Each structure stands twice: as structure tokens, then as C-alpha cells.
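Researcher: Go.
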Amino acid sequence: MRLVARLVAEGPISITRLSEGAEVTRQAITKHLRTLASAGLARDRKQGREQLWELQPRSLVEVRQYLELVSAQWDRALKRLRIQVEGD
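Model: Structure:
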């Protein structure tokens, strides 16, 4: 979660900068970034000798919309359950 928060707050950022002050290793950060990239949520680009990482806002909007849909489905299911439990 902190990794995504830093990507949001600091924009395109290198793994070196992301590693500063982190409680996990640089290798762990790289692994997380690659996982985000494989999900289409982040991307990297080369700038000089550094690789900069940034989030893909459009993909994040799609994820948020999907999570809102799932959340609404759970809300309806829990409401039905509550009615059934309280009705007995």
C-alpha cells in the first residue's frame, strides 16, 4: 500500500528512490512493481540510466469501478442475510 501511495504522491520515481526509507528490500520493491505492471496498473520507462515507475491511472479507475461493483454485490448479499437472520 505504501508503494502505491508513494507512486501516487511522487509521480514517476526510480526504484532507488522508492527503496529509500522502505522497510523492505529493493528486490521486494522490484517484485511488487513487476506485479503491478503485469496487472496493467503500473509501467516503467527508461530515463537516462534510471528506470522510472509510474501508475497507470486509467487502469486504476477500472479497478476501482470493479471493486465498487463487487462491494455493491456484497452489500446486497449481506442485507439479504441480515433480513433472513433478523426475520427468524
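Model: The chain has a mean pLDDT of 89.
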